[in-house]
């Protein structure tokens, strides 16, 4: 079953149709469902059972994939997740090393290995890639979605610059529940994978197959540091900055900045205070061939 979000990436129907033609050539029988509103992909994925389909394939971005993992976890949990990356950032595609080219995507879906991965959870809502609080969630909450459909990632950069001036930067208190260690930070992002914001790798190991989260703590506030951190992300040096710390663990609590937003896979999924942890449920994902 292919679930298509026509709004992801500003509508990439042509790329979807090409991929479906390649899937047909591989002998895959496809039932296509299109979302009409947020939440539909979650319901479609929840209703999918192994007797109807082998794989729920999300043709969309990381937000639609987030809906699907929540749907699969609430449903029978039997079907695997596949992706046709049509979103803006496509972080999961970067994480699993999947190209966005239709022929490669179809080959992966038809022949790729299925691997079991761990999920994260914030206040009962699952996330695949990351959950964040502080500056990062503030940007997600206020980004102009209409502009995002037109200029893509640029909308995040504009909102980042706007929030760097407007945001109050409350101090977050983060506790690693495995060890009891506590830290203060301006932004706290729990990575389930290794990437953030697109092709940018933050941590070298761990990743989706590990039953742990990497809590990335950005300690400083203000415009100058926002730009410095963004540059560190883009150049792959962020985790080596002296005011950035990464704690690996299975459960973290975050408070301070009460009622501030918490983002998961690029959508707001909770408010502070929150607890981010490795979810009990795992999920099967179709990877590209090695
Ligand atoms: N038919 C629809 N109309 C409007 N919104 C939808 C529809 N279907 C899904 N959505 C919502 O669209 C949002 C954005 O989708 P998604 O994240 O998949 O794409 P994207 O933002 O372009 O990509 P990425 O997250 O990879 O940057 C999701 O939060 C999802 O709930």
From TrEMBL:
<keyword id="KW-0594">Phospholipid biosynthesis</keyword>
<dbReference type="Pfam" id="PF19279">
    <property type="entry name" value="YegS_C"/>
</dbReference>
<keyword id="KW-0479">Metal-binding</keyword>
<dbReference type="InterPro" id="IPR050187">
    <property type="entry name" value="Lipid_Phosphate_FormReg"/>
</dbReference>
<keyword id="KW-0808">Transferase</keyword>
<protein>
    <submittedName>
        <fullName>Transcription regulator</fullName>
    </submittedName>
</protein>
<keyword id="KW-0547">Nucleotide-binding</keyword>
<keyword id="KW-0460">Magnesium</keyword>
<dbReference type="GO" id="GO:0046872">
    <property type="term" value="F:metal ion binding"/>
</dbReference>
<dbReference type="Pfam" id="PF00781">
    <property type="entry name" value="DAGK_cat"/>
</dbReference>
<dbReference type="GO" id="GO:0008654">
    <property type="term" value="P:phospholipid biosynthetic process"/>
</dbReference>
<dbReference type="InterPro" id="IPR017438">
    <property type="entry name" value="ATP-NAD_kinase_N"/>
</dbReference>
<keyword id="KW-0418">Kinase</keyword>
<dbReference type="GO" id="GO:0016301">
    <property type="term" value="F:kinase activity"/>
</dbReference>
<dbReference type="InterPro" id="IPR045540">
    <property type="entry name" value="YegS/DAGK_C"/>
</dbReference>
<dbReference type="InterPro" id="IPR016064">
    <property type="entry name" value="NAD/diacylglycerol_kinase_sf"/>
</dbReference>
<keyword id="KW-0067">ATP-binding</keyword>
<feature type="domain" description="DAGKc">
    <location>
        <begin position="1"/>
        <end position="126"/>
    </location>
</feature>
<dbReference type="GO" id="GO:0005886">
    <property type="term" value="C:plasma membrane"/>
</dbReference>
<keyword id="KW-0443">Lipid metabolism</keyword>
<dbReference type="InterPro" id="IPR005218">
    <property type="entry name" value="Diacylglycerol/lipid_kinase"/>
</dbReference>
<keyword id="KW-1208">Phospholipid metabolism</keyword>
<dbReference type="GO" id="GO:0005524">
    <property type="term" value="F:ATP binding"/>
</dbReference>
<keyword id="KW-0444">Lipid biosynthesis</keyword>
<dbReference type="InterPro" id="IPR001206">
    <property type="entry name" value="Diacylglycerol_kinase_cat_dom"/>
</dbReference>
């Amino acid at each position: 079953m292919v679930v298509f979000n026509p709004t992801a990436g500003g509508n990439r129907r042509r790329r979807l149709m090409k991929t479906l033609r390649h899937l047909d050539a591989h002998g895959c029988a496809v039932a296509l469902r299109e979302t009409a509103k947020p939440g539909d992909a979650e319901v479609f994925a929840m209703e999918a059972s192994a007797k109807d389909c082998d794989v729920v394939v999300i043709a969309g971005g990381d937000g639609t994939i987030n809906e699907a993992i929540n749907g699969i976890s609430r449903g029978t949990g039997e079907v695997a997740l596949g992706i046709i990356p049509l979103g803006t950032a496509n972080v999961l595609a970067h994480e699993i090393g999947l190209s966005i080219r239709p022929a490669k995507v179809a080959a992966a879906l038809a022949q790729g290995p299925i691997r079991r991965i761990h999920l994260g959870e914030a206040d009962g809502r699952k996330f695949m890639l990351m959950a964040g609080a502080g500056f990062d969630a503030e940007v997600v909450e206020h980004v102009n979605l209409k502009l995002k459909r037109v200029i893509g990632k640029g909308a995040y950069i504009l909102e980042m610059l706007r929030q760097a001036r407007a945001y109050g930067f409350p101090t977050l208190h983060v506790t690693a529940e495995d060890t009891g260690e506590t830290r203060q930070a301006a932004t706290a992002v729990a990575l389930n994978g290794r990437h953030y914001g697109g092709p940018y790798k933050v941590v070298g190991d761990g990743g989706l197959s590990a039953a742990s989260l990497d809590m990335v703590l950005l300690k400083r506030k203000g415009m100058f540091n926002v730009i410095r951190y963004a540059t560190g992300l883009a150049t792959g040096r962020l985790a080596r900055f002296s005011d950035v710390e990464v704690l690996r663990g299975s459960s973290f609590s975050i408070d301070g900045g009460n009622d501030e937003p918490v983002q998961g896979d690029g959508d707001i999924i909770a408010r502070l205070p929150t607890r981010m942890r490795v979810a009990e449920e795992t999920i099967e994902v179709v990877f590209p061939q090695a």
